[in-house]
């Protein structure tokens, strides 16, 4: 009993140290892209606006400009380190017929030092009201402006965005990890994750299509609280008398309920990304598919690692009973709960200050 208590103290102390040391990197969804907006306000006249994420240091911001046939800069205002506005006059907008896919214009990014691995999000609004949203990775610095995005281009872009979001959303991943612990068997895990999927897909769609909205800063506070609640439930579940609670008897229903909350968190990223004109449902479904693929990959990796460690221990003739006791003790819930608590306090303070 003493050795177990000492082990718990070491785990809690180490987690507090790591959380405090790497707090700047333990946020969810901090990889905000460079936001660029191009609007055609009259025939051949454009306004180029951009916003640089605050994570960039002064002097490292890219120079952003519009290139094309006879495109001339008219004036520039704003603060380049945060937001800038430039007016352009170009000879013509699109080549040939109305269904021409590519245009003669492109937005160019030139970094003075080096690319800090930031993606770019471009919203292009034409004079007739049509909108095109273009999402590119950090390796693309010359952003071509299509008159419209094809179906498969839209699907590809938003699946990639969904994958990026879930893999950068450490709070969502920790919650999914808790679901794996509480479900345990492969069949129950799949059913539980499906419940979580149904829950967050509903609120993701409602919020992204502006049918129902909620303050995202409040959601960001409640998400780590959900992690702490589930981690505490798992720790209590070591005793059989606590396994009669709703979370243990119906994990899929509980996952669906919490999924409603997490869906609003997913929608914040999709709101920043925007939904393309005329392809809103395609983009929404593709983004959600990307999120689901990310979750499935994460769950498979977790179960593979646990099985692989078990095989290594068995092959090394390490007492299997000790490994089973470590797994059954759910000791991983201590660092997960502490991390959730850290996020809860920090995000709660951000509501005040």
Radius of gyration using CA atoms only:
24 Å
The number of strands is: 9
Shape: elongated
Strand order of the largest sheet: 4-5-2-1-7-8
- The topology string of helices and strands comes to HEEEEEEEEEHHHHHHHHH
By helix and strand content, what is the structural category?
Answer: alpha+beta
Tell me what the structure shows:
With 353 residues, the chain is of the alpha+beta class. It is built from ten helices and nine strands. The strands form two sheets. It has a six-stranded mixed beta sheet with strand order 4-5-2-1-7-8. A three-stranded antiparallel beta sheet has the order 3-6-9, with no helix packed on it. Strand 1 (34-42) and strand 2 form a beta hairpin. The chain is elongated and about 75 Å long. The two termini are 44 Å apart.
């Amino acid at each position: 009993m003493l050795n177990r208590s000492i082990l718990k103290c070491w785990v809690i102390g180490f987690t507090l140290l790591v959380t405090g040391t790497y707090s700047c990197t333990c946020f969810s969804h901090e990889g905000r892209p460079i936001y660029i907006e191009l609007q055609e306000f009259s025939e051949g006249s454009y306004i180029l606006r951009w916003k640089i994420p605050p994570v960039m240091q002064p002097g490292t911001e890219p120079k952003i400009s519009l290139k094309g046939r006879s495109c001339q800069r008219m004036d520039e205002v704003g603060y380049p380190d945060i937001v800038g506005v430039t007016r352009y006059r170009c000879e013509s907008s699109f080549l040939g017929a109305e269904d021409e896919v590519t245009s003669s214009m492109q937005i160019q990014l030139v970094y003075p030092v080096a690319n800090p691995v930031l993606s770019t999000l471009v919203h292009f609004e034409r004079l007739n009201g049509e909108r095109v949203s273009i999402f590119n990775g950090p390796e693309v610095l010359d952003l071509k402006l299509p008159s419209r995005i094809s179906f498969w281009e839209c699907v590809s872009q938003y699946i990639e965005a969904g994958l990026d979001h879930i893999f950068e959303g450490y709070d969502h991943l920790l919650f999914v990890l808790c679901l794996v612990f509480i479900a345990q068997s492969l069949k129950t895990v799949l059913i539980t994750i499906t419940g979580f999927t149904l829950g967050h897909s509903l609120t993701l769609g409602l919020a992204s299509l502006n049918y129902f909205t909620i303050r995202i800063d409040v959601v960001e506070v409640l998400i780590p609280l959900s992690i702490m609640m589930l981690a505490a439930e798992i720790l209590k579940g070591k005793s059989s008398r606590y396994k009669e609670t709703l979370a243990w008897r119906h994990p899929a229903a509980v996952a669906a309920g919490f999924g409603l909350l997490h869906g609003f968190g997913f929608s914040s990223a999709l709101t920043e990304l925007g939904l393309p004109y005329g392809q809103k449902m395609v983009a929404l479904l593709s983004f959600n598919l990307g999120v689901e693929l990310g979750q499935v990959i994460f769950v498979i990796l977790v179960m593979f690692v646990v099985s692989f460690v078990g095989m290594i221990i068995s092959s090394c003739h390490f007492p299997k009973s000790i490994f089973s006791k470590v797994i059954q003790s759910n000791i991983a819930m201590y660092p997960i709960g502490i991390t959730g608590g850290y996020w809860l306090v920090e995000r709660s303070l951000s509501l005040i200050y």
